[in-house]
Amino acid sequence: MSGATHSARGFWPVMGQAFLWAFLLAVGVVVLYPLLWMGLGGFKSNSQIFDQPFALPQSWSLENYFSAWRGVQGYMVSSLLVTLVSTVATVLISARAAYGLTRTAMPAKPLITAFVLGGMMLSPTVALVPLVRMLQSLGLYDTHWALIILYTAFRVPFTTFLIRAYMLDLPRDLDEAAMMDGASPGQIYRRIILPLCRPIIVSCVVLHILFAWNEYLFAMIFTNSPSVQTLPVGLTSMMSKHGTDFAQVFAAMTLSALPIVIIFFLTQRYFIRGLTEGMAK
Amino acid sequence: MAELTLRQVRKTYGSMEVLHGIDLDIPSGSFVVFVGPSGCGKSTLLRAIAGLEDISSGEFAIDGERMNEVAPSRRGIAMVFQSYALYPHMTVFENMAFGMRIAGLKKDEIARRVTRAAEVLQLAPYLDRYPRALSGGQRQRVAIGRAIVRDPKVFLFDEPLSNLDAALRVATRIEIAKLKQAMPGATMIYVTHDQVEAMTLADRIVVLRAGRIEQVGSPLDLYRRPANLFVARFIGSPAMNVIPGTVRIGPEGARLDLATGGGLRAPFPLDAGLAGQTVQVGIRPEDLRLAEGEPLLVGRISYIEQLGEVQLTYIEAEGLAEPLIAKLPGVLDLAAGASIALTADAQSLHLFGADERSLRPEPAAAVPEVTSARS
Ligand SMILES: Nc1ncnc2c1ncn2[C@@H]1O[C@H](COP(=O)(O)OP(=O)(O)OP(=O)(O)O)[C@@H](O)[C@H]1O
Ligand SMILES: [Mg+2]
């Protein structure tokens, strides 16, 4: 008998475990290294990026970052504004819709539910042309409002879907107890249901921030002037402007990714829950 | 003070009728218990009274005032849920205060009432805790506290003790009985599966079956004079033994010949029209005892459940598919497989006709307080 078979866990399970770890490590490197490389690139000079792409920067000068910040500043403000307003609007509308879909006795509820949730199936690209015409005729083309409205409209179905699934799991007895306590439907919503939905609301906020911060298609098509454009579009135009100054482009990219990375790490618990919630319903 | 009146109350879900015309008067200050098999409509009836379910037809009134369309919170009713339904994100204090806050009571009045309820229910040390940090019994007491702070006229309990373990159930049952004593004016309606809860708590028991009232009466009434075979089998544990018998009317009065062989005098005079007819003879397990002289029943012991004080003896008798059960003193030396001879007093028998209704003549006196208007 060999030593391996004497051990409690055996040879193959241990090997399997080792392979799994190696695989996950490799995936981690593939995902993280480019980000790190981008961040480090911001400290290098253009020539070093080409000559020694994998070396550490020679000096840790923040100069590239400062000048990138000056370029990115305006886009950052637009992104913050659009993300913030559309997040608040989406989550408020979705929570209220989910409450209606789960707690009221409205007629034809399955149909309305299907209609609202069916919005998830709608591909943004299909709707582009009519949307452009519509927003142009409303005079909203090339304004922050265009993006706020589109982000809200396109994300309400999915967000409603997540919150609805969570609300379906909240016991009815709580509503009924509150009803016996004299609470109106509005009070039940604000004082019982909404506070209890906090975990899923946080998840939805995080998911929406991730979406709105990184959204490219709408931002590119519905905004034109630099004062209105958000970061993803702004970065592309920076790239075409400073096409040769990669150090500065890397610094700008790092700056624009930073807020989202921080938010993600602070809230990843909720983010993961948001993804797993609602799948069963 | 609140008197509840139900007239022909029906409830349908889609095309299925769950309550088939309930007529019931519940006097002010009484403790009424709804019992019945699972799915018979106890919760539905209770929720209709609370206003959580609409009544499909019929009328429900409190103190003569029609309540069908009145919102639950305006009926002066508090309800304790089987699941407790405490608000998980509020402390014990906030749970009890919620209704009063909604009603816009003053802060110090709210605090005064919550503190008093907490003292009565021994919850004072837990007022700042969240429900998740309480034991089942404590949660149940918070749910009761939430009901009493509002000072309602009517309390509804839907199987409030079914989530508690046996010891706690007894303790909480006694607390509910004390609560009732402390609030003689409040009307309480209580749903349970548990016979002991029904017998010990109730002034009046309402036996339901498949959406209809079978009988209304005091616990002893139901035990001693069940109106039909269903109530006879449902009240009392273990359930009453039922043996078919034939009526023979002779010069010295009516006699019964049991399917198992024995025979005895009828406990009360029987109509001559019953002569030769088959009736159902009910004998409670506790009314059976070992025969010294002429036995009424003979059989073979198939199984014994020894409970110490008593032993439940299962007996196979000739001519019966189901075993009979006798509740015999625990000290008797019995063994499975042995044969046994039993007897019972004629006065303890219950007789039911072909329609399963009791053949016992109605007593002249005793007008019951809670009446099913139908019967
Ligand atoms: N929302 C509903 N839709 C359709 N049928 C229902 C609904 N609620 C209850 N029922 C039916 O009504 C009948 C009575 O239910 P109810 O809950 O009142 O029974 P119960 O006597 O309380 O039973 P248990 O002792 O098990 O709690 C049952 O047959 C049940 O299936
Ligand atoms: Mg029930």
Automatic annotation (TrEMBL), chain A:
Residues 76-267 form the ABC transmembrane type-1 domain. SUPFAM superfamilies: MetI-like. It comes from the Bacteria. It is found in: Cell inner membrane; Cell membrane. Keywords: Cell inner membrane, Cell membrane, Membrane, Transmembrane, Transmembrane helix, Transport. Gene3D superfamilies: MetI-like. It is a multi-pass membrane protein. The chain crosses the membrane at residues 12-36, 75-99, 111-132, 144-167, 188-213, 246-266. The keyword Metal-binding does not apply. It holds the Pfam family BPD_transp_1. The complex is composed of two ATP-binding proteins (UgpC), two transmembrane proteins (UgpA and UgpE) and a solute-binding protein (UgpB). Part of the ABC transporter complex UgpBAEC involved in sn-glycerol-3-phosphate (G3P) import. Probably responsible for the translocation of the substrate across the membrane. Belongs to the binding-protein-dependent transport system permease family. This is sn-glycerol-3-phosphate transport system permease protein UgpE. It comes from Cereibacter johrii. The lineage of its organism: Bacteria, Pseudomonadati, Pseudomonadota, Alphaproteobacteria, Rhodobacterales. The gene is ugpE.
Automatic annotation (TrEMBL), chain B:
Residues 4-235 form the ABC transporter domain. SMART domains: AAA. InterPro entries: AAA+_ATPase (IPR003593), ABC_transporter-like_ATP-bd (IPR003439), ABC_transporter-like_CS (IPR017871), ABC_transpr_MalK-like (IPR015855), ABC_transpr_MalK/UgpC-like (IPR047641), Mo/tungstate-bd_C_term_dom (IPR008995), NA-bd_OB-fold (IPR012340), OB_MalK-like (IPR040582). Pfam families: ABC_tran, OB_MalK. Keywords: ATP-binding, Cell inner membrane, Cell membrane, Membrane, Nucleotide-binding, Transport. One of its GO terms (molecular function) is ATP binding. NCBIfam families: PRK11650.1. Belongs to the ABC transporter superfamily. This is Maltose ABC transporter ATP-binding protein /trehalose ABC transporter ATP-binding protein /sucrose ABC transporter ATP-binding protein. The lineage of its organism: Bacteria, Pseudomonadati, Pseudomonadota, Alphaproteobacteria, Rhodobacterales.
